[in-house]
Amino acid sequence: MADESTTNCCCEAVAENDDNSVCCGDYEVTEDSKVENPTNSKKEIDSETFKRIKDMAKSLDIEIIGFGKIPKEQMEENERLQYSNAIVFTMKIGDEIINEPPSEFAQNLNNLLYDKFGKATYIISDYLRQNGFATQVAHPHQNLLDLPKLAETAGMGVVGRSHLLITPDLGPCEKIGAILTPIENLSFSKENTHKWINDYCKRCGKCIKVCPEDVLQKEYMDDNKAEFIESRCIGCNQGCTYCIEGCPFYKDGYDYVKEKHDKLEAKLKEKGKL
Ligand code: SF4
Ligand code: SF4
């Protein structure tokens, strides 16, 4: 089944004149839908169907589900986006991948995870289509839209300085996928309780130091994120995960980091430095 959003590479741009440029290798994203989109999609999902979606996701090793609305401006800018409501999923990147140094083997492990996650997303999408809901799959390895940002919009976590999503349950260790749909009665997030991570990142910067390819540029910070030179990143063609390994949210966990952050902020306030 053809899908215009299908692409072989998740890189948005591989710099033509940069000798350090790399691309995401030969990973091929396959459009895996078995069910056609309904012509007239339903807009309201009932609680029973919704519960089945959640159970299905859990059985497919999907760890967190969130719901986000894609901003109007983004919909207008990106013609490939068919629907503005999103069901966002994450799947854990296990230690067997994180502990593996960059190599072809690490890359293969990563690709297997992308395969598993992509297939799981299509299974859920097909189920929705069977039940009368239109869908568009945002495969975890595609560049259909900025998935970490979407997950942040859905209140699931915050995009750290490393450009990785950081969540309470998985820290920076997750891949993100989504299903875009016209379903209107999803529990869209109204707030994001993880915004404090931005302040923590401002003082940390470990991901910048551990990156072997100078992908993250400290001097070009925007909105607390280091500029990310995607064309240099060997995460998607050698399975590099050093920025995950180096992140305190991976080593110490969300709750510990939050406690440390709160204590420091309290001290700074006491001294009138905040
Ligand atoms: S995956 Fe590796 S190369 Fe890419 S930003 Fe992280 S540490 Fe740097
Ligand atoms: S390593 Fe530090 S700066 Fe980078 S994402 Fe993790 S907490 Fe933020």
Automatic annotation (TrEMBL):
Entry protein name: Uncharacterized protein
UniProt organism field: Methanobrevibacter arboriphilus
